[in-house]
């Protein structure tokens, strides 16, 4: 099974609130792979808006994107791009 991961930093000072969490969950759901975001040792389902918001990620903090499955690399790259573009679709 393929796996991929990347460390990214949330640039927005607003944190990971409902709008970016929704965009992220929607994008993660487009992939077959299991997608998790890990912050302070806590792993959450990247396909769930509520799980993502419960991470309490604030601006300037880093988070690990981890995916396992056939399209893991593509999933991580797509989510990494969201962070880099500050969630502009």
Write a short abstract of this structure.
It is built from three helices and four strands. It is of the alpha+beta class and 89 residues long. A four-stranded antiparallel β-sheet has the order 1-4-2-3, covered by helices on one side.
Mind sketching the topology for me?
Layout: E1 3-9, H1 18-28, E2 34-39, E3 42-45, H2 49-53, E4 62-68, H3 72-84
Antiparallel strand pairs: 1-4, 2-3, 2-4
For the structure shown, list the relevant keywords.
four-stranded antiparallel beta sheet, 89 residues
Question: Any overview of this molecule?
Answer:
With 89 residues, the protein is of the alpha+beta class. The chain has a single domain (3-84), classed as 2-Layer Sandwich (Histidine-containing Protein, Chain: A). Helix content is 33%, strand content 27%. It has 3 helices and 4 strands, in the order βαββαβα. It has helices spanning 18-28, 49-53, 72-84, and strands spanning 3-9, 34-39, 42-45, 62-68. A hairpin with a 2-residue loop joins strand 2 (34-39) and strand 3. The radius of gyration is 11 Å and the shape is globular.
């Amino acid at each position: 099974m393929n796996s991929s991961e990347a460390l990214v930093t949330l640039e927005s000072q607003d944190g990971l609130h409902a709008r970016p969490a929704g965009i992220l969950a929607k994008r993660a759901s487009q992939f077959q792979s299991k997608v998790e975001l890990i912050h302070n040792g806590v792993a959450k389902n990247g396909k769930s808006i509520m799980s993502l918001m419960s991470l309490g990620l604030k601006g300037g903090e880093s988070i690990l994107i981890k995916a396992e499955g056939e399209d893991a690399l593509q999933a991580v790259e797509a989510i990494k791009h969201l962070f880099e573009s500050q969630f502009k679709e």
